[in-house]
């Protein structure tokens, strides 16, 4: 799933490890999500969106929407 997680993370000045610590996941999970190699669980997607204070639909792009 396409996303703008990397841009949001960098805008806050966070490393992948720092974001992972705050989300209670591994750095590898954040890396995989940013690289579009792993789709986060719905709870993690909402937790990330809340952390970045943006709608989940803005952080993660719906692949089924034209």
Count of helix runs: 5
> Whole-Å distance between the termini?
14 Å
Q: What is the mean predicted local confidence, pLDDT?
A: 95
The SSE order reads HHHHH
Range of strand content: under 5%
Q: What would you call the shape?
A: globular
Structural class: mainly alpha
Fraction of helical residues:
55-70%
Beta strands, count: 0
The largest sheet is: none
**Poorly predicted residue ranges:** none
Report on this model:
The chain is globular, with a radius of gyration of 11 Å. It is built from 5 helices and no strands. With 66 residues, the protein is mostly helical.
Keywords:
66 residues, mainly alpha, single chain, 56% helix
Quick description:
With 66 residues, the chain is mainly α. The chain contains five helices and no strands.
Secondary structure elements and their pairing?
Blueprint lengths: L4 H7 L4 H8 L3 H8 L7 H10 L4 H4 L7
